[in-house]
Amino acid sequence: MTITNSEIIGYDQVMHVIRKHLALRGVSEERIVDDATWRNLAIDSLDIMTLTQELEDTFGVKIDEQDAMDLQTVGQAIEYIVNARAVPAARTEGA
Predict the structure, then answer these.
(1) Which residue in 11, 26, 52, 83 has the most C-beta neighbors within 10 A?
(2) Running DSSP on this structure, what letter comes out for residue 60?
(3) Degrees (nearest 5) of the Cα angle 10, 78, 13?
(4) Rounded to two decimals, what is the model's pTM?
């Protein structure tokens, strides 16, 4: 599933991708809630980076590497993606 730039991204869409990704790493769906930390889910930095890549590819956003490492919970990651898609692309004035 790839989202086009014109589509609005919602909480459920991002949560679905996160749950699917973490299920492949053996994390049960009921543990994947907004306030779950990556540490509590036994997700390491490599897992975070592969999840980041999947979110970028799926939703067409760019996630700064430091931002990805600063996001500590599932809810923070969802909020980041939803907000990234809500901000229109910067335009160059006079172009």
Answers:
(1) 52
(2) T
(3) 35
(4) 0.81
C-alpha separations of 65 from 6, 8, 14, 90 in Å: 25, 23, 18, 20
User: Each residue of 31-88: pLDDT tens digit?
Assistant: 999 999 999 999 999 999 999 999 999 999 999 999 999 999 999 999 999 998 766 5
Question: Which option is the CATH number for 11-86: 1.25.40.10, 3.40.50.1000, 3.40.50.300, 1.10.1200.10?
Answer: 1.10.1200.10
Selection from 79, 55, 76, 49 nearest residue 2 by Cα = 55
75-87 confidence digits (pLDDT tens): 999 999 999 876 6
In whole angstroms, give the CA distance from residue 94 to residue 80. Answer: 30
- Which position among 34, 35, 44, 70 bears the catalytic label? 44
Catalytic residue check, 44:
yes
